[in-house]
Every structure is written in C-alpha cells, then in structure tokens.
User: What shape does this take?
Amino acid sequence: MEMPVMPETPDSSTDKPNQEKDTAQRDPRPSASPGTTSQPPAKPTGQQALQKRHYLIIALIIAGFLLLGWWFWASLGVGEGASRFPIAWFIIGAAVLGSLVNESFREIVQTQASYGWIITYVAWKCGVSVVFAFLAYLLVVGGLIGGELFPSFTAIGLSEGKTWNMEEFVTKVNPKDYTDVAKILVWSFIAGYSEKFVPNLIGEVLKSPQRK
Assistant: This one.
C-alpha cells in the first residue's frame, strides 16, 4: 500500500528575507540605522521669519536716526547753533525713538506680513507717538498739568497790544534752562514708549474737578 504524500508547506523562515528584499526595492527611502531617528532639517517658521523682518526694519530706522543725530550734532556747532532748530524737532525725535525702543520688544502676531506691511505699521506707530508727545507738550505749556517733574517754558505770554503768532509759538516758546530741556525730552520719550501714558494723562485732566 502506498502512503499518501503530504503537500509541502511553505517555509516562513525562507520567505521572510525575500519579502524584506521586495519591500526594500519598493521603498526608495534610506533605512535608518538602529537606535537613530531620521528627522527633516528644521525650517524657520513664519513667526521667526516675520520677527527677523521686523528687527531688520527697526535696525535700519535706528541707523537712519543715528545718521540724522550725527547731522544734528555737526550742525549745532555751526552758525546760530541750537537756535536753528526749534524744540519741536527734538520732541519729534524723542517720541519716535521711544516708539522704536518699545517696538523692538513687541511680539508680532501676524505671520504673513510683508516688508511693506511692517514699514507701514512702524510708521503708523511712530506717527501716533509724535501726536501724543505734542499733546503732552501742549498740556504742559497750557498749564493743564505742572509741578516739579514737568518743564517750565519762556515767552508763553504776549505783550500788551500784540497778537499771537503761530510761528513765534513754535520757535520762541522754549524751555527755561537745560533742566527743562531734559524734562521735555524725557516726557516726549515716555509719550512715544508708552501708548497709554498720554491718554491716561488726558483722562486725569478731564476728571479733575478744579479744571474749568
């Protein structure tokens, strides 16, 4: 009697290398060595790229102000000196500088901003700071606020029979001494640095019961 022949079962141990070989041929990616993980190179995020643009523009503006300051320094010793430049120019410079110093510590939220958007934003902030600085200047000259911390000015009154002149107001109303010059520059810087300083100051003036 012949014994029945059993069908051969495939040997999984011999087929496994062939399967791994076929998988390696189908997958072109290089296999990582044991114990190591392959990670793609880190790319700068949109927020980081925006911060770099922001800081670059701030640095360029500050460099421009340094050049302008050097020109002022060279011009002050020529001819009439500081009298050639009304105090208003220095108020503008201090306010813009305060705004730029504040802006360098600010976090930008928008990640798709272009250079044009950043320049427009910074220019707008500087313009607002100048307006606030002049409001603080007018509050002091007008006597709405005062004290030892605030500067005093000369030529704030008109002689009898003389009408007011805006040109004289801009050019002749000046701090009394160097201490007052320093005070007005410091307050102008603060007005540009702190966005809420002048609005809060105006609010206090409006709430004062002694103001008419």
In short: The chain has one domain: 46-207.
